[in-house]
Amino acid sequence: MAYDGFGQEVDETVQLHAQDEILTKIFRVIEEQTSLHFAYNPELVGKYSASISTESMNVEEVLNEVLKNTPLQYKIVKDKVLITGVLSTSLPQREALRKIPMLSREHLLRVYPLNITGTVTDKDGNPLVGVNILVKGTNKGTTTDFEGRFSLSDVDEQAVLSVSYIGYRSQEVTLSGRTDLTIVLEEDIQTLDEVVVVGYGTVKRSDLTGAVASVSSKDLQASVAKSVSNALQGRVAGVSVTNLGGQPGSGMNINIRGLSTLGSNTPLYVIDGVYGDINLVDPSDIESLEVLKDASAAAIYGSRAANGVVLITTKSGGKNRPVQIDANVYTGIQTITKRLDVLNAQEWKSVMKETGYLPQEAADFQGEGTFWQDEIFRVAPVTKANVGISGGGENSTYSLSAGYMNQQGALIESGYEAVNLRLKNTFDFFNNHLRLGNTLMLNSSDKQINNMTITDALRQNPLLPVLDPDQLGGYAGVASWMKNMDNPVGASKLYENNRRGTDLLINVFAEVNLGLEGLKYKINSGFNKNDSHNRNYNPPYDFGSGAIQSYLGESASFNNQWLLEHTLHYDRDIEKHNISALLGYSAQKYSGRGFSASRKDVPFGTNALNAASPAEQLTGGSLNENALTSRFARLIYSYDSRYLFTASVRNDGSSRFSDGHRYGTFPSVAVGWNIMNEEFFNANNIIDELKMRLSYGVLGNQEIGNYSTQNTTSTGLNYLQGNEYWIGSITGTSWVSPRDLT
C-alpha cells in the first residue's frame, strides 16, 4: 500500500498484461522492454503479486500501480530501479516485515552503487586543482582536474567523501543518494597551530622563539619560477635574492639579513635532512621552505650557520591516498626590451667627416651597415615542465617527479638545459614502531656560455660586415683604421664554452620508537655527489689583428660528501606542559678531485686533446678534503602555549683549522611570551598574534678554504736580480689562525 516514486523521471513506456502475477516476473518483463534494471531482495518482492493490463503506459505509472497495495517503494537512479521496503505504523505492514528473515532485512538496508560527479571550488567560486577525494573507509579515490571537477564510479549511495587540500580545511561530505556535488572549501587560517620545520625537528608556529620565516608550496608556485631562488624573490622579509649573472643557469645569490662574514655569504641549505645545493630542487617539488634568520634559531647548525639556514622539505605522498598526478608546463619567450640608439654607417661617416678623419674606404661605403645589437640578441624560448605522481597505502607513501628545463639565452650561443628526477618513500613497520624513509634526487645540466663582451657590440664599427668568407674563420675582421675589437658574432660563434654537471643527493633514515612514550631514536645518512666537465674550444681565426691558433681546453671535477647523524628525540605533552628535547651527534666528510689540460694547434675537425700539438700543453690537478664532527642538544619548553623557552648548544670540530683551534661551541637561548593567550588580552579580532620574544645566540663560519691554516707555498713571485731572472716563492700568503671558529 505504500510507494514513493522519487528520483529522476523516466520517459519510457511498456506493454504489460498480468493477472495476479508475482512482482519479480513483472519486473523482468519491464527490463526486457526498457533500458532499466531492477535491484531488490527476492525474498521480500517475491511475496507480493499484482494485476495490470495496458498496451502502453509510462514505467513510473506501471510501478505506482503494481506497488500500490504493497509495503514497497521504488527509486529510479539513472538506469537502475531500486525496490525497498517502507517502515510504517500500519500493523499489517509491520507484521509483513517481521516475517522477513533478518538476513533479508539487512539486504533491504544495503546501499546501492552510484556514479558520482562533482566540482570543488574555493569560496569565490574558483576551481581547485588537485584536491584529494577519498571514499571514507576504502582505498577508492580521485583528484580534481584543471576545472576542479571529479568523478567516481560504483560508490555507495550513503558513502562519505573525505575532501582535503593543502591550505584548506578538510571536509567530509555524505552523499545521501546525490550524484552531482558542488563542494566549497574554506581556507585554513588557523596558522598558529601549523607545524614549522626547524633544525632536526618541528615545532608549532605559536611556540616559536626564534626568527623563522616559512614559505609554503602554494606560495612558491604562485608565479612561474625557473629555480627555487627565483621563487624566493620578494617573499621573505630580510632575504635578498640577486642574479649572479645574465647567463642562463647562472644561479642566484641569497643573503639573509645582509652580509654576515668577510668570506662566503652563502646560506646553509638543508634538503630533506641532507646538506645540498638549492639549485638541485625544482620549485614544484617543494612542500615547505623555512628560513632560519636569527642566531638563536640557526645556532643548532653551529659553524655553518653564520649566513643563515634554509630548510627545504620536498613533497611526500600520503597514507591511504589514491594515485595523484600533477603536471605543470610553462613556455614563454625572452627578449631584450630595448635596443640602445647608436650610429648607423651613414651617421658614423658624417661624424667622422666632421672630425676630419674619414678614410677613403669608409667614404665609399653605401647603406646603413651592421646593427650589431640585432646580430647578437634574439627572441629566446623558455620551456619548463614538471610531472609528479604521489600516493600511498596503509603503511607506506611514495612521491615521484621528473622535471625538464630549457632556457635559451637572449644572447646568441647561450643557453641552459637541465633534467631532474626525484623519488621519496616512507615505510612503517610493527604498528608504526619502525619507520624507514629515503629521498633520491638527480639533476643533469648542460650550460652553454657566451663570454663575448656586450659592450664590444655597442662600440663595434657599423661599417664592419658580419661575415667574410675570405677571412680565416669566416668572419670579418677590423680594418687597419678601425678600433681593434673582436667581431661580436664571430666571438660568439667560434668560442665554445660548455659546462656539464651531474648532481646526486641520497638520503636514507630509520626512526625507531623506543617504547617510552615520546622517545624516538633516528639515524640519518646522506650522500652528495657532484661531477662536472668543462670544455673550451676555438678554431683558428683572424678578426683583423693577426691569426689566432686553435685551442682546446678541458677540465673535470669529482666531489663527494657523506653525512651520518644519530639523534634522540623526546616529545611529550603533560597537561599544560609541552616538552621537546633533542640530543645528537653528526659526522661528515668532503673530498674533491679535479684535473685540467689544454693544447693549442688543434687540427680542424678533431675534438680530442691528443690530436693537438703537445708543444704548448698545460696540465693541472687538485685534491681537497675536509671533515666536521659535531655534538648538539636542544630543549624546547612551553607552558600553556603562553610562556616559551628554547635553549640549544652545538660543539663543532673542523679539520679546516689548525691544531688547538679546531673546536668551537655555539650556544643559544630564547624566551617568549604569547600575550595573545593571556586571559586579560582581548584584541576584538584586530590583532591575530601578539608575542614578545628575546633571544641570544652565537654562530660560526668554517668556510675559510681547506688549507688556509696550513703552511703552503705560493709561487710565481719572480723578479730580476741584476741581469739574472730569479724564480721566487713565499709561504703564508693566506694564513688563517683564529682563536676559535666564531
User: Using only CA atoms, what is the Rg?
Assistant: 37 Å
Shape: extended
Total strands: 39
Number of helices: 13
Structural class: mainly beta
**Overall pLDDT metric:** 85
Strand order of the largest sheet: 23-24-25-26-27-28-29-30-31-32-33-34-35
Distance linking N and C termini: 91 Å
Structure description:
This protein starts with 5 loop residues before the first strand and ends in an 11-residue tail after the last strand. The longest helix is centred in the N-terminal third of the chain and has 11 residues. It is built from 13 helices and 39 strands. The chain is mainly beta. Among the domains are: 105 residues, Phage tail protein beta-alpha-beta fold (3-Layer(bab) Sandwich); 71 residues, Sandwich (Immunoglobulin-like), CATH 2.60.40. The protein has a 13-stranded antiparallel β-sheet. A five-stranded mixed β-sheet has the order 16-21-22-19-20. Strands 1-5-6-3 form a four-stranded mixed β-sheet, covered by helices on one side.
Write the layout of secondary structure elements.
Blueprint: E1 6-7, E2 13-22, H1 23-33, E3 37-39, H2 42-45, E4 49-58, H3 59-67, E5 72-77, E6 80-85, H4 91-98, H5 102-108, E7 113-121, E8 132-135, E9 141-143, E10 149-156, E11 160-164, E12 171-174, E13 180-184, E14 195-198, E15 201-204, E16 212-216, H6 217-220, H7 228-232, E17 239-243, E18 252-256, E19 268-271, E20 274-275, E21 286-292, H8 295-298, E22 309-314, E23 324-334, H9 345-355, H10 360-363, H11 372-376, E24 380-392, E25 396-408, E26 415-429, E27 434-448, H12 454-459, H13 488-494, E28 496-513, E29 519-538, E30 551-574, E31 577-600, E32 613-639, E33 643-654, E34 663-674, E35 691-697, E36 713-715, E37 719-721, E38 724-726, E39 729-731
Parallel strand pairs: 1-5, 3-6, 7-13, 19-22
Antiparallel strand pairs: 2-4, 5-6, 7-10, 8-9, 8-11, 11-12, 14-15, 16-21, 17-18, 19-20, 21-22, 23-24, 24-25, 25-26, 26-27, 27-28, 28-29, 29-30, 30-31, 31-32, 32-33, 33-34, 34-35, 36-39, 37-38
